[in-house]
Write a structure and sequence with these properties.
Elements (H helix, E strand, L loop, with lengths): L42 H14 L7 H20 L4 H9 L1 H10 L6 H13 L3 H21 L4
Helix pairs in contact: 1-6, 2-6, 4-5
Length: about 150
């Protein structure tokens, strides 16, 4: 007998899990240790290493050239802020616009994945001064170094 149409009556055999959706094998990033206001000794080491390992785990997304573009923009904004700390409030909307650029990259054929989007969003929410901007840049520098270790051939 044919199934009647209607929401909730269809079976989806694409995989297990809730709602019939396949579960992604990529682990979810833990941003709990990324605190740009109270720098722990592990921030630029273990925390950055774990974040890089998680983001690098998705081989279909998060290509080094794409991540490097975002890192280069972070460096550019940190340099501007360092040269003109009095203009930080003027720069902040453009710094936070990185969230929109990362979201666009996610929406554009998954150039970045949800883990990278979440990490950037978590960090950018904390940027509220020239000091936190510098710490954000340093965290991303450490992240990129560990990321290259995880994906040396890309």
């Amino acid at each position: 007998m044919a199934q009647q149409g209607g929401y909730g009556n269809r079976r989806d055999n694409r995989g297990g899990g809730r709602g019939g959706r396949e579960r992604d094998a990529t682990p979810t990033i833990d941003t709990g240790g990324i605190d740009l206001k109270s720098i722990s000794p592990e921030l630029f080491d273990d925390v950055a290493r774990r974040a890089a390992r998680t983001v690098a785990g998705n081989r279909k997304s998060n290509k080094p050239t794409q991540l490097r573009k975002f890192y280069d923009e972070i460096v550019m904004w940190e340099t501007k802020v360092a040269m003109h700390p009095d203009r930080f409030d003027d720069y902040l909307p453009f710094i936070r616009m990185l969230n929109a650029k990362v979201a666009y990259a996610k929406g554009r054929n998954n150039l970045v994945d949800e883990n990278y989007v979440e990490m950037m969003n978590h960090c950018l929410r904390q940027v509220d001064s020239d000091r936190t901007m510098r710490v954000f840049k340093l965290f991303m520098e450490a992240f990129m170094g560990f990321y290259k270790l995880e994906r040396p051939k890309d």
